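QUALITY CONTROL LOG
STEP: pairwise intake check
CHECKER ROLE: data steward
CRITERIA: each record must contain a sequence immediately followed by its structure tokens, with no blank fields

ENTRY 1 OF 2
RESULT FIELD BELOW
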Amino acid sequence: MMIGGLAQIQPFTVPPSNNPTQVSEHKPIDQSPCPPSLNQVKSMEEFKQAHARFIKLGFDQSPRHAGELLSVCALADWGSLDYAWSIFSGLDSPGIFDFNTMIRANVNHSDPNAALQLYYDMVQSDVKPDNFTFPFTVKACAQLSALREGMQVHGHVLKFGFDDDVFVSNSLINMYGKCEEVDAACKVFEQIGVNKTVASWSSILAAYNKMGLWSGCLNLFATMINSSSMPDESSLVSVLASCAHLGALDIGRSIHCSLMRNFSGLNHIVQTSLIDMYVKCGLLEKGLLIFNQMQEKNKWAYSAIISGLAIHGDGDRALTIFANMLRDGVEPDEAVYVGVLSACSNAGLIEEGLQYFKKMQLEHQIVPKSQHYGCIVDLLGRAGKINKAHSLIGSMPVELQTDIAWRSLLNACKIHENIEMAECAVRNLVKANCAKAGDYVILSNMYAKVGKWDDAARTRTKMFDRGLTQVPGFSRVEVKGKMHTFVSMDKSHPQSNEVHEMLYQMEWQLKFEGYQPDTSEVFLFNAGGEEKIQALNGHSQKLAIAFGLLNTSEGDSIRLITNLRMSGECHSYTRLISKIFEREIVVRDRNRFHHFRQGACSCRDYW
């Protein structure tokens, strides 16, 4: 029989003894040879020599020894999956250990399709799965985001009675999380009961984070801590990502301290997560400090800091770090170039942005995606080159003329008050069936600003006729580790009376500075000037600033996050408040950061 292309095996016979009196008929001496040890094998060359010895001695068809050969070849760092396949294919009747080994090896080698095919073949061969089968089979489903197959395997878990195995349950939580079925993940998580492990918590935290349930992720993390479970690095990475999205700086800092206390050294993933958290929470210099202290920097670390510098409008330092990245021989990918082009756009570096757009294609052979084109449209449009931005969209491949490009053009039209081109952008968004309520609101406000009230009303009517509703604008401020969220005209907060009293005081202070509210973009039909001013004063960003001033000490920074793009009126308002109250006010809007200090903004009024 041929095994893996090696020579045919000859049957092994025991040579006759020259001294038969030495052999007892009651206690025969076992003269069968021992197989060579695989413990000392450190390379494929040594393994092939050992494999040949196994074949020569006839051990390659022994289930126990064949399984050992297969396991070492398939799972060792120096092993060969192709060679392992040749061994597996030569087995007459592979058992559960052999199937488990190959399923695991294919998952480890990022070939989940082969792993699932192996599981199917195993079931068809009437080989009963065990508790070692399911974790890697479910992981294969997770790698493919194959929900249907994952649910089928889950059914087999129940059928064969492994639903109370915590390792199997952890893999199911991870799979449902990757498939964005957080309710199913939670159900499995709860069924584990008191036997939850750190991996159980890590999997459910990752599921919440992937689904954008960041507040829920932080609440779960608090529950984990209260249950006396010690989080691992994987759990903390998910929590740090949630802190970054929410702007929860105090919680992020406490996690950083926990990492420093409990881990002797932080891996690249954790360090990159810390960089991302600090820059997205407004502490750019802290993120830069961690980046500069990294002994070895990979492309993910570079991508995190370049993107961070981009959203802070620090284009020059972003390009310097990118140059260092290329000098160090780290190859940039699509995500890095999105950060580079975004940095150029936010800093108004037009020529540099266009040069890097060409460099990306010519030197690094990266085909532009819709995000890259969107950055260039934004770069040109924000600089007032509206027609060039429009022409660029026209020259793009049709499949890349997505909402990203047209929405970038629409925002540029809003900045430069180009109603005709804004109408064109909205038409194309409608044509592509990706128009949102916010697009209609921008166009309606542009009409309102120039007194075209009928057009403004008509645009709002179209929005409602299409069943589109605008996501409520909110602003969130962190005070003493707790996030406080406000919406426009909000009176639901427990300190609502104090907040509105503070707003009243702020208005008087602003009047002494000569501040005049800009009501030109306020769309309230048949409303007078005073009503429009009241609507402006109830803006969520202003409520959050008032709350921050009330509940932080003199000289403390106030940090806000809003899901809106900073309006010109709010920008002027916040700039003056930072001067009057001598506070640094850091605002992360939908696109970038604004650092207000002493009446000036880090964006230099270019946003």
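ENTRY 2 OF 2
RESULT FIELD BELOW
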Amino acid sequence: MKMSKGILFATILFLGTSISIADVICTFGDFRSGVVRCIPGHDGVKSLLMVHVLGNKQNSYIDELHIKNCKLLAISGNVFKQFRNIYVLDLSHNVLVSLEEDVFKNLVELRTLNVSHNALGTIDAKVFQPLTKLQDLDMSHNFLSTPSAESIFSGLASLRALDISNNAEILSLPSLLTGLKLKSLRISRSSLTLPEIYDIAMPDLIYLDMSSNNQLYFNGDASAVTQKCPDLLYMYLSNIQMKTIDSNFFTNNRMLIFIDLSKNLLKAIHEELFSANEELLSLDLSQNNLNRLPRELFRKTIRLLSLHLNDNDIERLPSDIFDSLKNMRILNLANNKIESLQSTIFSKNRNLNTVYLDGNRIKEINPYTFAANSQIRVLALSNNLLERFNFRVISTMENLLQLSLDNNDLQEISSDVVKLYSLYELDLSCNKLTALSPSNVLDLITEGNRLIHLHGNPWNCACMNRLLTYNKGYVDYGRNLFSDGKYPTCIVGRSLYDCDWNITDEDYNSWVKTRKYYPNLCLPRG
């Protein structure tokens, strides 16, 4: 029987579409979906009191119960008596400060429980014992601290995913996890200490997040930790004040596909650090203090797709450092101190589609640097020291959508421009350009809508006059020339919008007609 999605206000409802638990309104649309969602009533919710919510006939249809963001302060012991068969219970984003010992005693079929984003402190050791089939437990963003003498997770033999991140101070972690066969463990931002980490033994673990634990001081040989988790696929170690890392740190984790070492204090890494990680797909070394990269660092990571090296102090890159990364799609080298690029540095990376080189000190780019990279869709070169840009650099990029050259020292754009049919956005703002030849821009901006950012340059009005009145077809080709809403300024201080233009009546009439449909069009007023 299919029900509508309206909301009715009733305490007990057998045939309608919603139920009321105290001041909580619970609504569902189709019994066959088995999902009930609750929202706060008119006056908010102070407590969730026990009521007979659904009759036995309706109860058999319910698989999920969501009481999220309902301002709950407390839950009485028998409130879920009528929900013995639910698989998912979401109590997140409330203001629960405690859980009574028998609050979950009837939820014998529960598989997923979310009590995150509450104000839970110390929890009774027996509160989770009835949940023998529970597989996924999220207790993140609470105020959990020292647990009771008996582990609150004892008896959860089916538990596979546990999130206790963003809590006050999780102590006695090894004893807390004793007996669990977890696949996923999130313990970020929980004031962990190194001795506790050394004692963790999780042979079945495939996902481990220990990020943002500033008291770890994970320096030197910590391979004892990774040895106990040989099947790891995902490992997050960002923002843990790591200053050094041993070459054998990941030796026992040959299945890793994701490593995050960002936001640490690493100045150097050994060339053998990832030698055992041939399955690695994503590596994040951003926001460290790296000033150089060993030539053989990525020799074995042949399957790598995404590499983030941004926000370091890298000055030079070996010419063949990326040669083994033939599958790489994303490369982020932004905000380093790179001054030049070897002409062959990307010659083996034919699958690159996104390259960030912004925020460096590059003065010139060899026209053949990206000759082998026809798949690039996004190329960021902003905030460098480029004085001249030769568009031969991007001549092979048949799929280029976005080119950022803003905030450089560009004074000249080369005349040998090829047509870029795919280009959607070109940013030339905040440079030292005074003129662009009509042929240059018309070759860059072909058919269709395009975005060109030209503000922040000392334009010469006379030169731009010739550009914008090149022919009436330019109105169609470049109608969104100044669509960022910032009118370029002439070298004499006037806005290009106010310049005195020499334009034919035919061109003017074409402009007036187009203006009705494209109000951001920046052309002379006539």
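INTAKE CHECK: passed for both entries
DESCRIPTIVE NOTE, ENTRY 2: DSSP finds eight helices and 24 strands in the chain.
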